[in-house]
Specification:
Helix 4 links the parallel strand 4 and strand 5. By secondary structure, the protein is α/β, with parallel strands linked by helices. Helix 9 packs parallel to helix 10. The protein is globular and about 45 Å long. It has one domain: Alpha-Beta Barrel (TIM Barrel). The two termini are about 15 Å apart.
């Protein structure tokens, strides 16, 4: 498994909004991430929490590109991911060293994203499932069968992506826990990670501090790290290949222990 650590360059993310807007603070955090042994650093400049408003392309660029430039200069060994669905942001990020595009829309929000990926053959892409948009996704999510519906949607998206010239080995899939899903849907996904493995792509799971954990255990967002690492461990045991998380220290401890068992 690989640990993808979250670095939010946003004022309004649900868990750590505003914490890493200062470039020096962000660089110190990246240095610590790398010393601890994280595999990937996922950098985002737009909150996609439920009901969030989108930010402009220019604003997102202003937030993330200077930070990515500094990280690439100081830590050229770092494997960086850009958490964006905007092709212009992704293109600029790739030009300064980003190796993964983490697209919550699986290339559906911005049709030009596929062109950026086609022009950068060595860049991987995370295709994530979302029902609706971040602003609307939790209003009334509905599935006949959450696992099968999401599986079939992701299967279609991977086929479309490959047919548009993206190498199969460059694709990672993410069922999108919390993105247009209710509590039961999220649990259904977690119980059926092995189903998503049938597509033969690496599976990314991002459930860190999410609200369904808070609902189950009646926990505020800053009290969800124990629940998070329990659910992340379960996910890895079910076959998850990449864990996207805020508390990377917990995830790295889990990774080390599981490697010995």
């Amino acid at each position: 498994m690989k640990v993808m650590a979250i670095l939010n360059i946003t004022p309004d993310s649900f868990s750590d909004g505003g914490k890493y807007i200062n470039i020096d603070i962000a660089l110190n955090e990246v240095e610590n991430m790398l010393k601890c042994g994280v595999d990937i650093i996922d950098i985002g400049g737009e909150s996609t929490r439920p009901s969030s408003e989108p930010v402009s392309v220019d604003e997102e660029i202003k937030r993330v590109i200077p930070v990515i430039e500094k990280i690439s200069e100081k830590f050229p060994e770092a494997v960086l991911s850009i958490d964006t669905y905007k092709s212009k942001v992704a293109k600029l990020a790739i030009e300064i060293g980003v190796k993964i595009v983490n697209d919550i829309s699986a290339l559906t929000f911005d049709p030009k994203m596929i062109e950026v990926l086609r022009e950068n053959k060595n860049v991987k892409v995370v295709l994530m499932h979302i029902q609706g948009t971040p602003k609307t996704m939790q209003l009334n999510p509905y599935y006949i069968n959450a696992t099968l519906d999401i599986y079939n949607w992701l299967k279609d998206r991977t086929e479309i992506t490959i047919n548009n010239g993206i190498g199969r080995d460059n694709i990672i899939i993410d069922p999108g826990i919390g993105f247009g899903k209710n509590l039961e849907d999220n649990l259904n996904i977690l119980k059926n990670i092995k189903k998503f493995k049938e597509m033969n792509f690496p599976v990314l799971i991002g459930l860190s501090r999410k609200s369904f954990l808070g609902k189950i255990l009646d926990l505020d967002v800053d009290k969800r790290d124990i629940a998070t690492i329990i659910a992340e461990t379960y996910s890895v045991l079910q076959g998850a290949d990449i864990i996207r998380t805020h508390n990377y220290n917990n995830a790295l401890q889990m990774k080390k222990l599981l490697s010995l068992l």
